[in-house]
Amino acid sequence: MAFFLNSDIPLMTKLLEVVYMVIGIICLYTAIKNLTDKENPSPYGTAIFWGSIGIVIGFGRWIPNTVNGVLVLIMCASAILKRVKSGSGVGPTKEETQSKFDKIGIKIFIPALSIGIFSLVFALIGWSALVGTGFGVITAMIFLAIFSKDNKPKVFFDDAARFLSIVGPTSMLPPLLAVLGSVFTMAGVGDVIAQIVGQFIPEGNVNIGIIVYALGMVVFTMIMGNAFAAITVMTVGIGAPFVLAYGANPVVIGMVALTCGYCGTLLTPMAANFNIVPVAILDIKDKMGVIKSQILPAIFMIVFQIMYMIMFK
Hints:
Blueprint: H1 2-5, H2 11-35, H3 43-59, H4 65-80, H5 94-104, H6 109-124, H7 129-147, H8 153-167, H9 173-186, H10 189-197, H11 206-224, H12 227-242, H13 250-265, H14 272-275, H15 277-282, H16 289-312
Helix pairs in contact: 2-3, 2-8, 3-4, 6-7, 9-12, 10-12, 11-12, 11-13, 11-16, 12-13, 13-16
């Protein structure tokens, strides 16, 4: 309570903490729901996984770092040992979905749009986009409750738990990979890369530097699953010393280098949000099918972007 009453802490920080607490509570609810699910083949491992996440995300600020670290290890152990399973969560039938759509119609898109609108507005006025997303979700829930009296709070909790269970451990890849990017940066990985790359890039050859920088962004994003995490390391290791240091336009190089990383996003299962989560939700049989269909567009885009940076550097 002292945290929220402290006037020195910005309002957005407090609101963001509330968002994290809500997410944590949803994860804890998912843990309890799977623990009591008699059809879940691994109720205890699943409950431990979601319970650990819920505690860390929702209340990690007030827990010693050592305890948070132990909980993360426990969480990862459950996933590694394949003890995280999906229970009997059953979604609406096709008939129920059609019936709801016939009743609500095109208005069903209003809740979805409200999430994006709130996120964008909050970002544009200099507030936290994540807090805006939280407000957008609450607004969406209000709209859904207005559209149908069946949409009670328990429905939202049950559906959240169902989708989390479907996605499983892959839902934790994005935050873990983002943390990995920060760890790599603090550990000086970029400096090590600069030393290695410096041995074969001709000094002052910006074009070669651009090619290595762009391909490095692709490869590192494939490893880390996150272009935002990769660009920090790659810019420190290659972009700054071998491209920008020789007069290349930082606006062009920085902008396009990030999109080069997105080409790597198209090619890796580590980009769980894009290539794994949709596969799990849609129950696509070919787990790598999304990635396979994106190979040619990724190759075309990386070639085009390298040419663009060389031409307009």
